[in-house]
Amino acid sequence: MYEYRAPRRELSFVLHEVLEVEAVLAALGRGEVNRSLIDEIIEESAKFSEQVLSPLNWQGDREPPQCVQGVVTAPAAFKSAYQQYRQDGWPTMAGPAEYGGQALPSLAHVPVGELLCSAAMAWRMASGLSEGAVLALSKHGSDVLKSAYLPKLISGEWAATMCLTEPQAGTDLSILKTRAEPAADGSYRLTGTKIYISWGEHDLTENIIHLVLARMPDAPAGVKGISLFLVPKRLDGKANGVSCLSIEHKMGIHGSPTCVMSFEQATGFLIDKPGGGLACMFTMMNQARLGVGLQGLGLSERALQAATHYALERLQGRASHGAEQPNQNADPIVVHADVRRMLMTIKSQTEAQRLLVYYTYLLEDTLTFSSDAKTREGAALLASLLVPIVKANLTDAAFEHASLALQVHGGSGFIRDTGVEQYVRDARITMIYEGTNGIQALDLLGRKVLMNGGAAVQLMIKTIQNSLPSELPQQVQPWAAALATQLAQWGELTALVGGRVRQDSEELGAVAVDYLQYCACLLLGWCWVRMAIVAARQVSAGSAEAPYYQAKLAAAAFYFERLWPKHLSLAAGIRAGGSSLPRLTSEQWSA
Ligand SMILES: Cc1cc2nc3c(=O)[nH]c(=O)nc-3n(C[C@H](O)[C@H](O)[C@H](O)COP(=O)(O)OP(=O)(O)OC[C@H]3O[C@@H](n4cnc5c(N)ncnc54)[C@H](O)[C@@H]3O)c2cc1C
User: Fold this and answer.
1) 258 CB within 6 A, ligand 1
2) Domain co-membership, 133 together with 253
């Protein structure tokens, strides 16, 4: 089994050479977070991810947490890794300083998240959920709640969950039933059942803080009647009417206990105002959606490493032009063009996706730290456009990449000991939770694109155009020209879809997924143009790392020759629209 190595060089390329984050952060007034600090954070978290976490990935899959009479016990190694993670101060990176956090910009702490996801995604989910809760509470909680809960959540002494889903309410949260009755002391008593709650119960921490969506007795129907409550597992040292009824037996992420949670007159505290629950939850969900995109990136990276390693080692057949290793019985399978097609597909998408995700976090940092209101407004518009694209595109790709990595392994990929089949099983959930990828597409097209009359797309197009220098290296020119042509069509296609949706609202759902993937295809093309400019300049400057940069240019060429044309079929699907999705009768469906 291949053991994961943190992609230090790739992170350095994206963060320092392409995004130039040191200068970006200095311009945002966070100059103390310089290159050497970022590299130090990456190096230390790389060691933790490689040495401590990566071996747990496999272990968590084989020996998952167990639930006995409501007590969920994680593998001992999960617990000790969590203690080390806490002692080393990792959970404090993002939290606000007044409650014990380091308030680091995303560009400094998100790379850690990427490495943790690659190393052991199921384990990482526990701390990732706490980070989301810290954000929601910091933004929407009262001072009393913040003082009582943030310090221990930020230090990692306590963990948190996100409790939305109920048996009858998954995508459609408007029909959730959990009730919150006001108590005389201003708190609430919550009663109801939540399902599929990740890390809902466990023994990594002594207390778990549940953020729960529920309805008050007089609340209006629908989403306007949903409020958010903070419900601790233990309150003032005593049990608080929260219990785990069971954990699910599932396809992947076995290391993460997925719990059925029962709330029986549990004491909870209102966060924000009555009826404001979904808005608060969106704070957490936006961050969580980017976090799931990051899970996709982490899994893709791990799949790429395993597949590349195997392709260089496994000896089968001969290169078509004659033996490359005549002293061996056969050549390594990387000599076969089809194997290289699979590797290049994973590599060229994953590397561009890494830039896309960190660019999105750069926008988040701009939104947080910029002193200029107009700059913040633009960053907010672009980030809102990119969040659903990052979530859906990176997770769809992670599943594709894991499957391709398995294919590179041939029959051994299907055997558990290689470890690759776990990546396929783990990747599949990322397309479903935090809003299915179909829902991400509806969010993108319906809310982020059409609700503001296409302003976000127009700003994105302008931003892309302004990002490219007038003098381009010769090799990059045809790719930049293809991008420029397609940017004009993006605007036209968006206007076409907008017109159709105004006439028939079903058109939205009919084309949303193709539209999201079309946008992603263009954005990844932009990422490749940006990376290729840096690489081509380094090659012509005679860089000592020329082979590294030449590989970048080869991946860019592969992307534009083999993957970029997908936008044509996606655009065709969008143009075909809803009329290509007939409503068959139930007899026709089941005939
Ligand atoms: C392992 C795991 C961990 C999870 N962790 C958590 C957690 O920590 N906290 C939590 O609250 N939840 C969690 N979930 C729940 C998860 O977020 C939901 O499963 C997900 O949102 C989908 O809801 P659902 O399963 O009810 O599917 P449904 O809502 O029944 O959807 C079924 C299908 O119909 C489609 N669909 C539904 N409505 C529409 C629509 N309006 N338009 C177009 N298509 C539609 C969906 O896209 C999907 O393809 C977890 C789930 C799993 C499996």
Assistant:
1) yes
2) no
